[in-house]
Amino acid sequence: MSAVDTSAPAAEIREPSFGFWRRAYAMVVKEFIQLRRDRVSFAMIVMIPVMQLLLFGYAINTTPHNLPTAVLLQEDTDLGRSILKALENTAYFRFVREVHDVDEFDNLLKSGKVLFGVEIPRGFERAVRRGDKPALLVAADATDPVAASSALSSLSVLVQTALEHDLFIGDPPSLPFEIRAHARYNPAASSRLNIVPGLVGTILTMTMLIFTALSVTREIERGTMESLLSMPIKPVEVMFGKIIPYVVVGFLQAAIIVSIGIFLFGVPVFGSLLLLALLSTLFITTNLAIGYTFSTLAQNQLQAMQLSIMFFLPSILLSGFMFPFLGMPVWAQYVGECLPLTHYLRIVRAIMLKGSTLQNLQYDTLALFGLMLLAMTIAVTRFRRTLD
Amino acid sequence: MNGAPSSPIAIDVRGLTKSFGGREVVHDLSMQVRRGSIYGFLGPNGSGKTTTIRMLCGLLTPDSGEGTCLGFDIRRDAEKIKRRVGYMTQRFSLYQDLSVRENLEFVARLYGVPDPRGAAREMIRRLGLNGREAQLAGELSGGWKQRLALGACTLPNPQLLLLDEPTAGVDPKARRDFWNEIHALAAEGLTVLVSTHYMDEAERCHEIAYIAYGHLLTHGTVEQVIAKSALTTYTVAGDDLNGLSAALAGQPGVDMVAPFGNSLHVSGRDKAALETSIAPWREKEGLHWQFSAPSLEDVFIELMNRSKDNFQ
């Protein structure tokens, strides 16, 4: 009898500590079940670290190699050939085009098809033999100073080492010609000039995506979708109705950022402001269309946010905003080509810093247009017209 | 085209079936609704009322079955149906962050009403919402929200109103006003399909249908439905009704025993068996037995109990 009396209160005292774990365990089980059911969150758990690791580990390369380079050959001599070979052997440069007039050379740089240009002037070999120390012009697109400066800074040493074997330069080991490096568009190699235009695109990507990514899921979660679907409105109409207001918002946002860039950071605009405004509107619309697409794919607002982040992360890392695009491995460049930010960064940097025209930017404009149409097509076909 | 807009039948569907995740929510449902009538759609929660209404207005695609709504095929002509139907959802589904006027103007523009501002102003006047037109819809009380929702779905002059439990959570006065409005609209020639689970509302309908577990169990006028049930009901008043209720439940012929205030309704489909079972209590002191017509509620509860045995 006494055993019963003592055990009962003892059990009551012990109970809470077990109770804590039991309840916590119940909670843990429940959370795991919910997590497993929420496929998108589950995917994010795996995808985000894997993606970050891959991107940071492989794609990012601040000492880029194989940067596309054009050659302007004003004379065709053995010495010129040796120098080009030596430059290519440094692995910094990869000659993609050989041109014969200055305009073509300038255009290649302006359109961003090449990052470097090497010019071997007429009468170069003869001048070397005479000991005149002629200039070998290396022009770099310094809108991205990271890519340009490391290649330029090591240029003369590398060329010298490479040429020692080819040319019979005795002591003192000095180059019989002068390398004149010309950092175009951003002579001071100011990273501000590179980053401010880049920020225009990055900020717009983030805000535009989120504006529309929530738009459809919000209607579903608030229950207004049921009413909307029972009314005679077509998916394309819903999409344009949701995108257009934010085009205006995005345009204002872009205007604010560009103004700050110009007046506060002193970033020049060499190209046409009208062209910049037009192409910015295209970029804004493309991002809104992509955000809207996420909205039609996601089940709820949280998923829509997660999809936006999944898209935003590679946009920052692979677009050439943080790291030189042409210095990334080829697979990362292919991924980058699918991101609107990549094309817009080229556009905004080219217009502001290089004064490029629409003709120089044809490819990137078409790419943005294509991405916008693709997103809109997916969104319209994915839009659920019924509650099935 | 058969079932042209002038046809006397507004809704004509056969064999509608719909499943969600392997569970059949609506089973082989057929119904006809006459133009200009108020058709009551009754049934317990989760019986498939909302699903049926959504299939009628093109918000859900039936797994099988076919039919027309206002003469248009419910599968192929969903867009044409939407233009002519006003659907009032069970949950308030107008924009809470838009004002009364903004909501109405939005609806008017979507339907292409010629003068959206004027139409909205006229509807505000008709709803008696003058002075509240700038108020956000989310801040309105339940009764006003319901009036606004009705106003929004009648604004584009639809030919058919589908109202999904429009009076849930609305006070009796507002309910009565609401039903007066429905009758006024029907008098103008509008067809109204209204789902509810209030029995008194069922009696305000021209015709009713009862649906449980996805099956349409009975339909017709209230009188027809009661007559069709072939239910015999006795009303007992007196002492110790709880004891009597317990004693009678489960007796042969007694299908249902339900308290109604101070009396007890004892019902059964087999009149002879019922009367045999209650005979021992008929002459008991303190109990007053009376043969009575079953109420609509008796009929529905009995139908529901029976369908539960059949379908669950």
Describe the fold and architecture:
- The complex is a heterodimer of chains A (388) and B (312).
- Chain A is an alpha/beta fold and 388 residues long.
- In chain A, 67% of the residues lie in helices and 9% in strands.
- Chain A has helices at 2-37, 39-59, 78-89, 102-110, 124-130, 145-153, 155-166, 191-213, 215-222, 224-229, 235-263, 273-297, 301-318, 330-337, 340-354, 362-382; strands at residues 67-73, 93-99, 116-120, 135-141, 178-184.
- Chain A has a five-stranded mixed sheet with strand order 2-1-3-4-5, with helices on both faces.
- Chain B is of the alpha/beta class and 312 residues long.
- Helices cover 37% and strands 28% of the residues of chain B.
- In chain B, the strands form three sheets. A six-stranded mixed sheet of chain B has the order 6-7-8-3-9-10, sandwiched between helices. In chain B, strands 2-1-4-5 form a four-stranded antiparallel sheet, covered by helices on one side.
- In chain B, strand 12 and strand 13 form a beta hairpin.
- In chain B, helix 3 crosses helix 4 (116-127), helix 3 runs parallel beside helix 5 (142-154) and helix 4 (116-127) packs across helix 5.
- The two termini of chain B are 41 Å apart.
- The chains are: A alpha/beta (388), B alpha/beta (312).
- Chains A and B meet through helix 10 of A and helix 2 of B.
